[in-house]
Design brief:
The protein is α+β, with helices and mostly antiparallel strands. It has a domain of 110 residues: Cytochrome Bc1 Complex, Chain D, domain 2. The protein contains eleven helices and 32 strands. A hairpin with a 4-residue loop joins strand 22 and strand 23. Helix 3 crosses helix 7 and helix 8 packs across helix 11. The radius of gyration is 24 Å and the shape is globular.
Length: 612
């Protein structure tokens, strides 16, 4: 029972800490925006206060609030202004809200971690992009039941439609075939009538893909793309390496999918998130969540450039953006969602880490109103640290922030070549930041004894190539990292306990004797290295996973909290699934004794690990 009790204890401690912080200061963290059909109401999903906020666009004042589920994100507005839908990412539900009463009238089902929403034609079906389960739930709004699930790939997060006939899904996690392979992503098109995938627009070299926008006249789609350059050493930061921030254009009027840079030669537009288009495509607005800016682009020039250049040959040509980048508007911290008035004259921007929504006059290119939706003055050390974590101002040319690799303070599922270990040597996977305070030492080699060392001068020297975190800023970042809440584990049974398969897997995890009666050496028993609140010994170990590029075979023992959400495994991410850990990468039984287990027994072990 030791494993069960420690997992439960960690969950209680972290949940209690989060609740204690909420009772102290309840930050709103506005993330996504949606305008009502008549433009008189602006709706805001607030991820940390678990609210939907309504703003009267005539007075620019908060007109109402309603509590929905945990960590609300995506929004979809009914065309009759009567109902609005909110994706509750931590509850795996969708709240249907009567906006005239600002009251939740129905709770609808979804997949694991619903993030984006789109309404089908005649609002008959709701399409829900589920990040963890990697699929799209099709919810029949007449019955309130999930009709089907459409698998679209890892990290399905954002949904967009115009008219409801075709739905476009983007994903924050790419597909990676191997640790030294170029990541591949795509935009998935779903036919709303047939409710099946009809097209995939490939994006080679793309990591996370965020929001997609569709031109009013159809035929043009634009997606916000983060391009990690993880196959070259991070020493190339000064040469435009490490990250590229781009737009992908696709559709009949574009021809071949084109990817074009947002970055300028000496100044990047870090982490593009949302996109808004004027009806005539004369202007395109892109929120750069790491740069604290909104980019203004000449849409016609962008489309002409995409047609002329095509493909991705010019995506790393930082002079290309001069053709279509018109202006940059300074907004608040970590701008996320955008909403544009029908006439294109007013743009609303959700500043997640300022707890504000800004109204921008697009003709003047200036902020004309700032609307507070939560706490804007009193900042805890954790909140200040969060602002630094998501800001690209610390990096050379403002290319990236900590959150560029640790998306939403978790992971990007990629492997990187950190050049302080030697070019092409000691390639390492991005670690998840959940339960980070419990998992010292840091770095896969365990050479950083604490977070101050991990995030201080070494980040400045080997990542940012600029000022880095120092003094009070470093202390605040460490405070934030220790406060990151743990996502709910969907693999556990309600109320505790395990399924039959999980129980069998637990017995295998805790076993000390092989199936033929031999004693398993303590060093080869799972619980020797994986125990305690975060299931780590906080020690280095050699489990026989050294690769040709590694200078040592000894690595830090990772924590196992939410291990099934990590995307890749081992120090370099070479194991793509949990089962590969015990088959392809454990031929000598150095990473626990698993060679005597059958395929079904390995499946049971994996099912148990998913509950941690």
């Amino acid at each position: 029972m030791k494993v069960q009790k420690t997992a439960a204890l960690l969950w209680i401690v972290l949940s209690s800490a989060a609740l204690a912080g909420d009772s102290r200061i309840r930050y709103a963290s506005p993330e996504e925006l949606a305008l009502s059909a008549d433009g008189r109401r602006l709706y805001v999903s607030c991820t940390d206060s678990d609210e939907l906020v309504a703003i009267d666009t005539r007075t620019n004042r908060v007109a109402g609030r309603v509590h929905v589920g945990r960590k609300p994100r995506g929004l979809a507005v009914g065309r009759d202004n009567g109902n609005l839908y909110v994706a509750n990412s931590w509850d795996d539900t969708v709240s249907e809200v009567d906006v005239s009463l600002m009251r939740v009238v129905r709770t609808l089902p979804a997949g694991r971690e619903p993030t984006g929403l789109a309404l089908g034609a005649q609002a008959r079906f709701l399409y829900v992009a589920n990040r963890i389960s990697g699929d799209v739930s099709v919810v029949d709004l007449s019955t309130g039941l999930e009709r089907s699930k459409i698998p679209v790939g890892p990290g399905a997060s954002y949904a967009m439609t115009r008219g409801g006939n075709d739905i476009y899904i983007s994903r924050v996690f790419p597909v990676v075939r191997g640790i030294r392979e170029v990541p591949q992503n795509e935009i998935v098109e779903i036919d709303g009538a047939r409710q099946q995938i009809v097209a995939r627009f490939g994006l080679p070299g793309a990591g996370a893909v965020f929001h997609t926008a569709l031109a009013a006249r159809g035929g043009v789609g634009i997606a916000a793309v983060l391009r990690p350059k993880n196959l070259i050493p991070t020493a190339h930061v000064e040469h435009g390496g490490m990250f590229g921030n781009a737009l992908a254009l696709f559709g009949p009027e574009v021809g071949r999918v084109a990817m074009l840079p947002l970055d300028e030669i000496e100044n990047s537009l870090a982490q593009p998130f949302d996109i808004a288009l004027t009806p005539d495509l004369s202007r395109i607005f892109v929120s750069a969540s790491g740069a604290d800016e909104v980019a203004v682009l000449d849409g016609r020039q962008l489309l002409a450039t995409a047609r002329a250049l095509g493909g991705d040959r010019f995506v790393n040509d930082l002079s290309a953006s001069a053709r279509y980048l018109v202006a940059r508007i300074a907004v608040g911290r970590n701008p996320r969602g955008l909403a544009l008035s029908d006439d294109g004259k007013l743009l609303y921007v959700a500043n997640r880490l300022d707890d504000t929504v800004m109204c921008v006059d697009t003709v003047r290119g200036a902020v004309v109103k700032t609307i507070a939706v939560g706490e804007t003055i009193r900042l805890t050390a954790e909140r200040r640290g969060e602002q630094h974590f998501y800001s690209a101002r610390f990096a050379f040319a403002r290319q990236f922030s900590c959150s560029s690799c640790h998306l939403d303070a978790v992971t990007d599922g990629l492997s990187w070549d950190l050049e302080q270990d030697g070019f092409g040597l000691d390639v390492v996977a991005t670690k998840s930041l959940e339960a980070l305070a419990e998992s010292a030492p840091y770095k896969w080699s365990g050479t950083n004894p604490d977070l101050e060392t991990e995030c201080g001068v070494k980040s400045e020297q080997y990542f940012f190539r600029s000022q880095g975190f120092r003094g009070a800023e470093l202390a605040d970042v460490v405070s934030f990292l220790k406060s990151i809440p743990v996502r709910p584990n969907r693999n556990r049974l309600p109320g505790g306990g395990w399924t039959a398969a999980q129980s069998r897997g637990k017995a295998l995890f805790e076993r000390k004797i092989t199936k033929d009666g031999r004693t398993i050496l303590p060093i080869l028993q799972c619980q020797t290295c994986h125990f305690g609140p975060a299931f780590t010994s906080n020690q280095l170990a050699n489990v026989g996973t050294r690769q040709k590029s590694d200078r040592s075979g000894t690595f830090d023992t990772p924590q196992l909290i939410n291990v099934s959400y990590k995307g890749s495994y081992l120090h370099d991410g070479s194991a793509r699934t949990l089962k590969e850990l015990f088959t392809i990468f454990n031929a000598r039984d150095l990473h626990g004794v698993t060679s005597d287990l059958s395929a079904s027994e390995l499946d049971d072990l994996v099912e148990y690990l998913k509950t941690l």
